[in-house]
Amino acid sequence: MKRYALIAAILAASGVAAQQKVQSGPGAMLRGLDKVNGQTVDVELQNGQSKTVFGLDVALGDCRYPADNPTGDAFAYLTIWEQGGTDQLFDGWMIATSPALNALDHSRYDVWVIRCITPSGD
Description:
Largest sheet: 5 strands, antiparallel
Low-confidence stretches: none
Distance between the termini: 32 Å
Mean pLDDT: 85
Helix content: under 10%
Strand content: over 45%
Number of strands: 8
Radius of gyration: 14 Å
């Protein structure tokens, strides 16, 4: 129940109408940044999958996008923790067009959502 309330709040904050229908994509494209050396990497994750992005482990719960606009604003549920660690650094929804709205707070690394992977594979 709390998860649905959070989704509605995120949609309203990102400018998407609360009654707009959304679809879940099978995965998401994320971008990682190492702030020390300026290196970036793009990572494709499937729902339920986790991968290492620099020194962080990132797990994707779900990626959603407006049903009538697949290239529109994506939002993904991410869980992020230090590689080999157990304490979560981030656990929540991140919005592609407003990553600072709910951002990862890490001194060296940054991770944000680029887009959802849509079923048509675009």
